[in-house]
């Protein structure tokens, strides 16, 4: 007789990981130690418990134009927590403070790239990109392996 044991897959460690999710169309990969909690985009500005409640935030592309507004970028910089922008076709520039006045102001003002990227920014320094991204074809979505690579960066 052979007994097979099933172990549930965990992300990074055995500790519970809480992810604040902004957007309805995000893939939520299943792990036994991950809890996804839905947030409204406005909560980024009003919820003072974000950094203490969540390990990181995931934001879908449907909210990128909103979160590229200066109030949101200032908020990201002030709470200094990792944010995963999923499926950007315009890179990471829209999610940092503009370095010069000649730069576009909102996400939709940037040029489209032929690829998509999922980008982690840790907001350690104002106006400076600190993070990593994974790039994939425009007709693909963020894969579980890529998600794990980005999460590993967050928990380094």
Please characterize this protein's 3D structure.
- The chain has 156 residues and is α/β, with parallel strands linked by helices.
- Helices cover 21% and strands 24% of the residues.
- It contains five helices and six strands; from the N terminus they run ββααβααβββα.
- It has one domain.
- A six-stranded mixed sheet has the order 2-1-3-4-5-6.
Beta-strand percentage range: 15-25%
Helicity, in percent? 10-25%
Name the overall outline. Answer: globular
Overall number of structural domains: 1
Structural class by SSE content: alpha/beta
Concise summary:
This protein is an alpha/beta fold and 156 residues long. It contains five helices and six strands, in the order E-E-H-H-E-H-H-E-E-E-H. It is globular, with a radius of gyration of 16 Å.
Provide keyphrases for this structure.
6-stranded mixed beta sheet; disordered N terminus; 156 residues; 5 helices; 6 strands; 21% helix
List the helices and strands and how they pair.
Elements: E1 17-22, E2 34-39, H1 43-46, H2 50-53, E3 56-60, H3 64-67, H4 70-79, E4 83-88, E5 115-121, E6 131-137, H5 144-154
Parallel strand pairs: 1-2, 1-3, 3-4
Antiparallel strand pairs: 4-5, 5-6
